[in-house]
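Quick check before the chapter quiz. The format below is the same one you will see on the exam, so make sure you can read both the input and the output lines.
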Amino acid sequence: MEKVTVSDKLSLFSDHWNPRIVGELNGQHVKLAKLKGEFVWHKHDEEDELFYVLDGILKIEFRDKVVELKPNEFIIVPKGVEHKPVAENEVSVMLFEPMSTLNTGDTHGDMTKENLEKI
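Here is the expected output.
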């Protein structure tokens, strides 16, 4: 059991769309990421995904609407729902996802990260 200071962990990296694992519990990963620009449209067929905004403003685009998240707000994207995160400026987020979750879900490409670093 060790305390995690989120700001210390965020200071260890500066790249975007490359989540880092900062904890594990009950088959879930706790991840931190910095986002900037547009991600890819994707969905997760078997996993729900939680985006918790720490700093900045994150938009989650869905096929029928856009949800804007500010610091200390979160959204749970249910499995099977297509979505695309968009960050006009840099955003720091915490993600809660099953360990099996691939960041790009059913879409594979340049933004796919298969072996995440633990920090």
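If your answer matched, good. Helices lie at 6-10.
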